[in-house]
Amino acid sequence: MSVVTLQESRSSSERYRAAFDARWPAPDALVELRRAALERFVAAGFPTPRQEEWKYTNLRRLEARTFAPAMSAAVAVGGWIANAGTRIVLVNGHWMPALSSIEAQLPGMTLLTLKQWSAHDPAAVASFTAQTSRARPGALEDLNLAFFEDGVVLDLAANATPDQPIYIVHQWSDGSTQVMSNPRVVVRAGTNSRCVVIEHFVGANAGECFTNAVCEIEVAAGASVEHYRIQQESVRSFHIGHVNVRLQRDARYASHDIALGASLARVNLSTTLQAPGAHVALNGLIAPLGTQHLDAHTSIDHAAPHTTSDENYRGIASERGRGVFNGKVIVRPGAQKTDARQSSRNLLLNAGAEIDTKPELEIYADDVKCSHGATTGQLDAAALFYLRSRGLDEAAARALLIRAFAESIVTSMSLPAVRTYLEQLLEERYKVIS
User: Fold this and answer.
1) Which of 134, 243, 333, 337 has CB atoms 3.0–4.6 Å from 269's, for a disulfide?
2) End-to-end CA distance of the chain
3) Nearest CA to 46 among 112, 146, 141?
4) Residues β-bridged to residue 397
5) In the chain, where the domains are located
6) Which of 284, 299, 285 is nearest to 340 (CA)?
7) Which residues pair with 234 in a beta bridge?
8) Number of neighbouring beta carbons within 10 Å of residue 381
9) Phi and psi of 407, rounded to 5°?
């Protein structure tokens, strides 16, 4: 496979200048922030396999296309998670109030869209976005900052505990093609607050689209955020996701990352435990089939002593699908008494399927407990024979074993509505029996 040179990558990124100038002609504080991000993106270019972080994922197919900013469009309601909570729908990256169910603001909670806010005070949005963005964003995060049209801001005051999840639907409209969406979600959980956020990326009938999503989460002392991320976009589309999480003392963050859709998809999930007592739990499932390429990159940065993390990712690859898991755990100098566990287990259902798994530990402290492990194999022939000897045909026996393999990820979900929805998806995908 050929490798894109840095010069070629920059040339490809240059094509977005015209789209930027057409979309943001009027100068204001927000446009200045956008243009600075665009210049960084053009200077860096698209990531290439020559960069270690992108060794297993080549974006050449994505680079070869130039996507225009998507416009809002009507969509039919369907395929969403029933009874999932307060719903906010972004169609092609734009808020659709008619499909959303935002009710009166609950005590201690502020929930609004970026487009609403920027229409009234772009300078405030520019300041807020600059504060909540990563200090050193990647090139595709800069592309998001340059072109984001809308998004969601959830602010929780100290001790706030909303009684239902916040359900954010990222929906592509039918017929969309050669367009991109750059949604931006910000969650700030105040001291001792609690919340559940669901991000659902859908668009089964959409054409060749590009989703480039950013989610910034700040978890204050004693707060807890549970984050579901379910990606089931069109198998012709491209999907890049960035989730950046920062935790303070005794804070909790739990992630459920499910990748089922898109032709080429990657999620970069970065967490930083910045104070003692912080805990991170990352659970994920990547399930490529056909010719899908699904990539999960995670980073858990133990930047303070007495912090803990638990990571469990599973991959199921079938047909000619390719999966990638790269999980890095960093223990900084002085981060003593760190307890970090990491597991990557993978299942290949066909001879042509492939999963590249690369768990990593970087430890710069000596009083720690850290472990990692990775396995890749096929369905257990003995277990398959046992089930068939009990009257199941081969297809049903294989489906039952696949379901059992994914069970630890499904059962980690505390929300019954999401758990039931995922079980149904897996049943349809692998013809799992009841």
Assistant:
1) 243
2) 42
3) 141
4) none
5) 6-275, 381-434
6) 299
7) none
8) 8
9) -60, -35
- Nearest C-alpha neighbor of 143 from the set 71, 63, 41: 41
Where is pLDDT greater, at 209 or 3? 209
Interval 320-332: pLDDT, tens: 999 999 999 999 9
Q: How far apart are CA 302 and CA 247, in angstroms?
A: 10
Name the β-bridge partners of 268: 242, 297
The span from the CA of 386 to the CA of 259, in Å, is 31
Answer yes or no: are the C-beta atoms of 432 and 404 closer than 8 Å. Answer: no
pLDDT > 70 in the chain, percent:
96
Three-state DSSP at 250 gives coil
Q: Kindly tell me if the per-residue pLDDT of 177 is higher than 70.
A: yes
- Helices H / strands E in the chain, number of each: 10, 21
Average pLDDT, the chain: 91
Helix/strand/coil (H/E/C) assignment for every residue in 140-207: HHHHHHHHCCCEEEEEECCCCCCCCCEEEEEECCCCCCCEEECCEEEEEECCCCEEEEEEEEEECCCC
User: Which one-letter amino acid corresponds to residue 87?
Assistant: R
Residues present in the chain in total: 434
What are the structure tokens assigned to 144, written together?
A: 């998001």
Put simply, whether the predicted model's pTM sits higher than 0.85 gets the answer: yes
Question: Mean pLDDT over residues 380-391, rounded?
Answer: 90
Alpha carbon distance 185, 309 (integer Å) = 24
Euclidean distance between CA atoms 163 and 169, whole angstroms: 19
Instruction: Tell me what pLDDT residue 5 has.
Output: 53
Please tell me the predicted confidence (pLDDT) of residue 131: 85
The partner residues of 247 in beta bridges, in order of sequence, read: 219, 273
Hey, is 358 helix, strand or coil? strand
Instruction: Give DSSP secondary structure letters for 271-327.
Output: EEE-STT-EEEEEEEE---TT-EEEEEEEEEE-SSS-EEEEEEEEEE-TT-EEEEEE
